[in-house]
Amino acid sequence: MTPPATQTGTAAPSIAGGSPRAGGAASAKADTASPSGTGGSRERSGQGLLHVYTSLTLSTVAARMLGITYPLLALFLTGSPVEVGWVGFALTLPTLLFYIPAGVLVDRVAPRPLMLVTEAGRALAAFSVALAVIFEVAGMPYILLTAFVEGTLWVVYSLAEMALIRSLAPQNDLTEMLAMSETGSHIAVMTARPVGGLLFGMIPGIPFLPFLANSLMFAVSFRSMAALTGKEGDRAWRLPGRSEVADTARAMFGSSSRGEIVDGIRELRRHPFLCMAMALTATTNLMVNALIVVFISGSSAFEPVTVGLVLAAGGIGGVLGSSLAPGLRRSPRLARVRSGKLMLFAQMWISVLALSVAAFGPHLAFVGVATLLTGCAGALSNVTIRAYEINEVGEGKLARVVSVHRLAVHGAVCLAAPLGGFLASVNGVTAAPMSLFSTMAVLALLFSLGWLLRYTWKKLTRHPEDA
């Protein structure tokens, strides 16, 4: 799950393509002279944001639904918790393989065309799985392949989304738009998981409906993104030329790719907050997502819709957390929270609490409360991290920095799938959550102790004139 200091980056550009911080007097004068133009620009920007929000929401709903229906399909075909873990691994493996090359791609190619290509590919992949299930030719090799394709296209889409938001959102609306995006993501969790489970079990023996529904949602998302229009020449909209395609291919796969990656890592290291966020969120993602895999592995006794409803509690918590985020960031009384660090530690210890609840036993209520807590904490930290990335990371390096950051964070999710399947098969569904809780508690104590020692050392060694 996925985010202050000296201003190092550039502000997000305005809808018209200019900087929201530059030329204030001239801009105000121009706005006064041409109020109708300003109104038209705001109307177009509002329509553009509506198209973007529609596309993002539908795409996220479809992706979240696939996150539960692919493992359920593996369990349906094989009855093996290990196979459930491997399908989850195939969905998340692309985060390890392609996040950094995709970051180079998104930094060099306009985000909108990339998002159109990915949505078309995801629609075709989901539709092919629906056909394979209908004609009873769906085997594990093909399921693993299509899950891998979905994960790969999602990586590109998620990075392009950040670039598109940066190009569309006025600076003063950035936190609100990120909170809206985060809310949409958790509404997707809240709705997609139970709906996916319901569709999966609607036609016994032929669970093709969720994949057909996903294909349709990706198609509508494609149509909504295609309807998005912008000022001619804006980077966010124009298609790349031949020379740009060749340069991008060389940057991604040629000899210069190492330099591009190193440049992204170097920029990330300039931001200690992002480094801390990367370590803490990677750890919590590993443990919480392993718990979800353990739960799904032992869910054969429950109806698929019940499984979806339990996991939807994470979406409820996420909606709550993302709704609170803008107010917390604006509140002068919560300056420490606003700095972000306290938010990250809150996420970590709330995850410890959530895993302790799940460790009481495999009861549905315990798992539901655990996902509710982690969803709320994760949403709060996600908005904080994403706002920092967009505001502070240098222009032209955002996607590379985000890709390095997310490589670690989502790489933990990738490892969580086989870890959860392994724990469920070796320790059993009942004992596995206790193992996860114990490990998370020890890691949280070590993180907290390390931070406390570092803070104390800095305070003791600070010169009097620095106080």
UniProtKB/TrEMBL annotation:
<feature type="transmembrane region" description="Helical">
    <location>
        <begin position="432"/>
        <end position="453"/>
    </location>
</feature>
<dbReference type="InterPro" id="IPR011701">
    <property type="entry name" value="MFS"/>
</dbReference>
<feature type="transmembrane region" description="Helical">
    <location>
        <begin position="366"/>
        <end position="387"/>
    </location>
</feature>
<feature type="transmembrane region" description="Helical">
    <location>
        <begin position="302"/>
        <end position="321"/>
    </location>
</feature>
<feature type="transmembrane region" description="Helical">
    <location>
        <begin position="407"/>
        <end position="426"/>
    </location>
</feature>
<feature type="transmembrane region" description="Helical">
    <location>
        <begin position="342"/>
        <end position="360"/>
    </location>
</feature>
<keyword id="KW-1003">Cell membrane</keyword>
<feature type="transmembrane region" description="Helical">
    <location>
        <begin position="52"/>
        <end position="78"/>
    </location>
</feature>
<feature type="transmembrane region" description="Helical">
    <location>
        <begin position="84"/>
        <end position="102"/>
    </location>
</feature>
<feature type="region of interest" description="Disordered">
    <location>
        <begin position="1"/>
        <end position="45"/>
    </location>
</feature>
<keyword id="KW-0812">Transmembrane</keyword>
<dbReference type="Pfam" id="PF07690">
    <property type="entry name" value="MFS_1"/>
</dbReference>
<keyword id="KW-1133">Transmembrane helix</keyword>
<dbReference type="GO" id="GO:0022857">
    <property type="term" value="F:transmembrane transporter activity"/>
</dbReference>
<feature type="transmembrane region" description="Helical">
    <location>
        <begin position="198"/>
        <end position="222"/>
    </location>
</feature>
<feature type="compositionally biased region" description="Low complexity">
    <location>
        <begin position="1"/>
        <end position="36"/>
    </location>
</feature>
<dbReference type="InterPro" id="IPR036259">
    <property type="entry name" value="MFS_trans_sf"/>
</dbReference>
<feature type="transmembrane region" description="Helical">
    <location>
        <begin position="273"/>
        <end position="296"/>
    </location>
</feature>
<protein>
    <submittedName>
        <fullName>MFS transporter</fullName>
    </submittedName>
</protein>
<keyword id="KW-0472">Membrane</keyword>
<dbReference type="GO" id="GO:0005886">
    <property type="term" value="C:plasma membrane"/>
</dbReference>
<feature type="transmembrane region" description="Helical">
    <location>
        <begin position="123"/>
        <end position="144"/>
    </location>
</feature>
